């Protein structure tokens, strides 16, 4: 087994940050210095605090103050998805009990086997305690103060939008997800979920012509029970963790997709999750199955109103990839992150896992995390079959008082299995951003290979970034490569752009775009063309 790693050096600034010295990296003497190899395991912790005397600014102090104020004003731009929709809804009383679980199952007209699944998960949940091992700091979630089911009163007919409340349609129009026949996206099938229920799924009939099943998980439980029973909980069992057990007991809706053998899904499939009710948590369940030699690409988006209290989002995503099948799962997570003082925002506690069961199968996760007050998730891949491939591409952005503890797990069990990890963390304001990763190569995974690249970018003097890489190798013929870097956007680089007639806003955008390019290139076109604008909106004003 061969291993390689790289320590933290400031790529953007010739001035060392305190954490750089703490990690033992030398201060580079020029732009583009090489990273030093490092064999240490465990935690790499970086805090953007300047040490020693700072050299005078190339610009005057008054000009610097003006530029700082301009950037801070840009940072306070309004979250444009923070509106609340006014429609009639039905909600069950707040609180979590066995009666709550039974009521949810009753409202969804589920078969007995599904109720049994929920009750078994709830009983297991009662034996567990809320985890506290992440870097995130928050008050324990009061599960008795949450409403676990809220749905619009007017339900649509199957395959029809005739009875949907016009306000619901208007909501998704405002979000850029038109559902009406005249306006809906031509090349993307969308399952629109608001609070606890799916209100519409587009292009179902066209997909069925190819044998592709795409519908809400509630409809799949009733219409395709054998498929759901076979795969539900097979990748993420209820006992996996605290929030997976909670989700298994109370999940309300989500998406189901099954792609039959020898089929390429004719269009992108997508789910858009929207929270509207202030006191409701969202607990969706997504299950995607790619049968032998099939291919599917899935897009996921989400937003929520700008409430001044926190809300819980605890989802479970399961991917199953049979022999020579491929699933590409892309997420742009833009939940409300709270105001600049850290008030409000979504607690995003999610379990996402894929299983490459068959030989030559492939699962690729691509995520851009820009929202949520707190993010806690690790999209992972179990590489069971020989010649399987797992990929993870991630940009995690935090600003103001956001916290993120995210990363991935690559579990190698099959021979010649390969995995690749590219993680980009960006920390601004007073936020904390943590990458936590596991690469595990079992004894039977002969000739397995992993390449990991974890880079952190610090903006401002109060942000923090931590990295926790764990590598477990049980096979001597395998190879693992890991490198990490930490960089900081500084005053010198911004001045360099300014000398060439490029203002601060565009300068920051250029540096961020280059930093994130390796991840953005792996997003589907429907998301990729929006990413630069989204990142600019989130990051503008973070330097000052």
Radius of gyration: 23 Å
Most strands sheet: 12 strands, mixed
The end-to-end span amounts to 46 Å
* Annotation field: number of helices: 12
Rough outline? globular
Number of strands: 25
Average pLDDT score = 77
The structural class is: alpha/beta
Percent of residues in helical segments? 10-25%
Low-confidence residue ranges: 2-75, 157-161, 177-186, 540-544
Strand content: 25-35%
Q: Which structural traits does this protein have?
A:
SUF_FeS_clus_asmbl_SufBD_sf; 544 residues; twelve-stranded mixed beta sheet; disordered C terminus; disordered N terminus; 25 strands; alpha/beta; eleven-stranded mixed beta sheet; Fe-S cluster assembly protein SufB
Short description:
By secondary structure, this protein is of the alpha/beta class.
Describe it for me?
Belongs to the iron-sulfur cluster assembly SufBD family. Pfam families: SUFBD_core, SufBD_N. Residues 193-265 form the SUF system FeS cluster assembly SufBD N-terminal domain. There is one protein chain. This protein has 544 residues and is of the alpha/beta class. The chain has a domain at 81-377. It has 12 helices and 25 strands. The protein has helices at residues 18-23, 61-75, 98-107, 112-125, 166-174, 204-208, 217-223, 225-231, 242-250, 491-499, 504-520, 525-539; strands spanning 2-4, 44-47, 89-91, 150-152, 188-194, 197-201, 213-216, 255-259, 268-274, 285-290, 295-303, 310-313, 316-321, 326-333, 345-356, 362-369, 374-377, 380-383, 389-398, 403-412, 418-427, 432-441, 449-459, 464-473, 479-489. Strands 2, 7, 8, 10, 12, 13, 15, 17, 18, 20, 22 and 24 form a 12-stranded mixed β-sheet that branches. It has an 11-stranded mixed β-sheet with strand order 1-25-23-21-19-16-14-11-9-5-6. The chain has a two-stranded antiparallel ribbon with strand order 3-4. A hairpin with a 2-residue loop joins β5 and β6 (197-201).
